[in-house]
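Quick one, tokens below:
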């Protein structure tokens, strides 16, 4: 249960609504041809976004949660068996990557593979028999000769991108999936391959509107930024600003002379967040959804959106913190494990820090993350108010 940080953190993926709005604003007025090419003609790769937690394993057999190294021999995480993670042969995966890309035996110094650990029973995961699975979605290679190695990986068909001066990200695409399967490991369900972003959005419309799946992860490519991963999530997940981003992008597209298929794509993304009539999760949680939408409306009515540097906590900030506590808990092992080990205070302090980072990510402003201020004090209060009663209930 070590809470020491590791230096191989998987890069945070872009929110699709935010990223697509940025591109629309950049190109819709002056470069519609580039907009059409990106959304309607450039091929991308897509998989289902599972509602699990990020678990990684390296070629030395060490296992990591989202930000922390697990203890040697730990058998469960979030009260779910790690058997499938232990079974995964990362050395074989590394050998296959080396062979496929013709890298040479000593080029890869370290390999760490990332996957979604299925520790939840939401959606139909039990029926599908994937609870406890570990579904690989990417890898980081620490290498010699970075530029030469990156070229070889790209030429071999991998969706590769420079992470640091010695590290390369390998994102999900058909080539990675092929290697993962050859290494006898599981992969997420494919939702699109060598198809345009627009086609993938329209093709997955019904599943997204009904809430059958949590979302879609797209590996996209553009000459300007290379490979990038974006996630498109449904309406039943808390997302600050996503509805507004979707509506703004939709309005910009609909009011422009662009291809009808592009208009359909953005209409679909808008409908996924605004049309609740088919979403089984939102229908079941109607009252909670109404409270959430009321808070969004309240937030949108504020005349000024204050930045974190102002040290002011709006009602929406407090809502992000509340949701962030439960979201961040899934990056650590179960509370019971920490209590049993006598490390409750360490757990609480780490959770407080993680919630502060979660707030910064949602607001898009990391200024003052390490400051001891009223924001930190509020997070400390909320974390203790939620965690301490749970400890007492454990007996």
């Amino acid at each position: 249960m070590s809470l020491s940080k590791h230096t191989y953190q998987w890069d945070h993926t872009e929110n699709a609504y935010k990223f697509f709005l940025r591109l629309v604003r950049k190109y819709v007025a002056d470069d519609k041809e580039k907009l059409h090419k990106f959304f309607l003609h450039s091929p991308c790769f897509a998989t289902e976004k599972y509602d699990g937690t990020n678990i990684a394993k390296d070629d030395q057999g060490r296992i990591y949660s989202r930000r922390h190294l697990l203890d040697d021999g730990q058998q469960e995480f979030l009260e779910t068996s790690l058997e499938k993670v232990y079974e995964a042969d990362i050395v074989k995966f590394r050998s296959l990557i080396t062979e496929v890309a013709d890298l040479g035996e000593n080029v890869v110094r370290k390999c760490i593979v990332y996957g979604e650990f299925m520790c939840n029973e939401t959606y139909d995961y039990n029926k599908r028999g994937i609870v406890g699975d570990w579904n690989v979605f990417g890898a980081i290679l620490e290498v010699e000769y970075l530029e030469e190695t990156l070229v070889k990986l790209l030429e071999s068909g991998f969706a590769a991108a420079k992470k640091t001066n010695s590290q390369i990200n390998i994102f999900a695409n058909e080539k990675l999936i092929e290697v993962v399967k050859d290494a006898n490991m599981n992969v997420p369900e494919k939702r699109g391959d060598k198809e345009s972003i627009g086609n993938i959005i329209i093709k997955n419309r019904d599943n997204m509107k009904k809430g059958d799946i949590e979302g879609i992860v797209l590996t996209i490519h553009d000459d300007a930024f290379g490979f990038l991963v974006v996630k498109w999530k449904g309406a039943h997940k808390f997302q600050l600003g996503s509805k507004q981003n979707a509506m703004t992008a939709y309005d910009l597209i609909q009011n422009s002379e662009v291809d009808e298929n592009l208009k359909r794509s953005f209409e679909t993304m808008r409908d996924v967040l605004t049309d609740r009539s088919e979403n089984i999760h939102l229908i079941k949680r109607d009252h909670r959804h109404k409270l959430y939408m009321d808070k969004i409306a309240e937030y949108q009515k504020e005349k000024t959106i204050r930045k974190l540097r102002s040290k002011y906590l709006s009602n929406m900030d407090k809502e992000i913190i509340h949701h962030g506590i439960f979201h961040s808990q899934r990056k650590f092992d179960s509370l019971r494990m920490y209590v049993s080990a006598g490390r409750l205070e360490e757990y609480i302090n780490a959770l407080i820090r993680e919630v502060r980072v979660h707030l910064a990510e949602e607001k898009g402003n990391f200024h003052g993350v390490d400051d001891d201020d009223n924001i930190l004090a509020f997070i400390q209060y909320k974390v203790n108010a939620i965690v301490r009663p749970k400890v007492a209930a454990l007996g």
